[in-house]
Amino acid sequence: MTDGHERKAFYGHGLPYSDVSNLKGTLITIEGSDGVGRSTQVRLLKEWLEVQGYGVIETGWTRSELMSETIGAAKAGHNLNQLTFSLLYATDFADRLEKIIIPALRSGFVVLADRYVFTAFARSVVRGADPAWIRSVFGFALVPDMSLYLKIDVDTLVTRVLRNRRMDYWEAGMDMHLGTDLFESFRKYQWRLIREYNAMARRYGFITVDATASVEEIQARIRRKVEALLQSRRMRTLTDNLEALRPLLFDADGDDDQGEPHAAVSSASAEPASAPRGGDARLGDALAAKPPRTD
Questions:
Q1: Which pTM does this prediction carry?
Q2: Per-residue pLDDT tens digits for 103-152
Q3: Distance CA 293, CA 295 (A)
Q4: What is the 8-class DSSP label of residue 176?
Q5: I need a surface site. Which of 79, 170, 180, 295 has the fewest CB within 10 A?
Q6: With contact defined as beta carbons under 8 Å apart, do 26 and 233 qualify?
Q7: Ramachandran angles phi, psi of 281, nearest 5°
């Protein structure tokens, strides 16, 4: 957690029905082209942060319970146009923002977003959307505390994708009719995406990380940037929070006549009231758990 009550900013009109005046957590986004290795870096970063004692929530593109199946089915039909793409992505993101990201930030978690609204910006613009229009559509998005951009050139990206997995229809931009060959279409489409990401890096102040390096080198650079951010925001680990709560849970004078600690609450034997399973409940569960080992 951070001390104080910093208000998060929106990219546009925001969410008028959602209070974001006291979001104590930190929002970190990881962006980059298809196949650049974002998901691997997010997984490694999440594991590392948890070992340090932070509460971490991960969210990714098109993973909302409301829209993930719908988007998957629509893409399987290979008949989405640019407008449908943008609106489906906006709906998915809005659902995750309201149900996952904001509650987690309110509870003091570090939120790692594998892709953010910049993915929608890049994909929509290269398909011919008006940049001002797509930014307005996603005007309800929170401004992240840090955006990490895994930058790579198209030649290295193509080699990496061919070595690790297959190219698919949408990653190759086949809907844009850039060519009949999947390989050439992938190359042309990803080149356009990279060009757009490079422009956004300057516009939105991304922290650029050289994605041509090894997985370990990329992760080391990411950790240094994230650690500096959390220290500057005075983020507290779950262990810190547990120690801060201890005086509130037990009397300062220690044991009673029976050798048992005095509970500060009025009825120690009573069952705790049920709590909704939102971000605050998850934080409570995490605080009650044994802090992770850091050796």
A1: 0.74
A2: 999 999 999 999 999 999 999 999 989 999 999 999 999 999 999 999 99
A3: 6
A4: G
A5: 295
A6: yes
A7: -70, -40
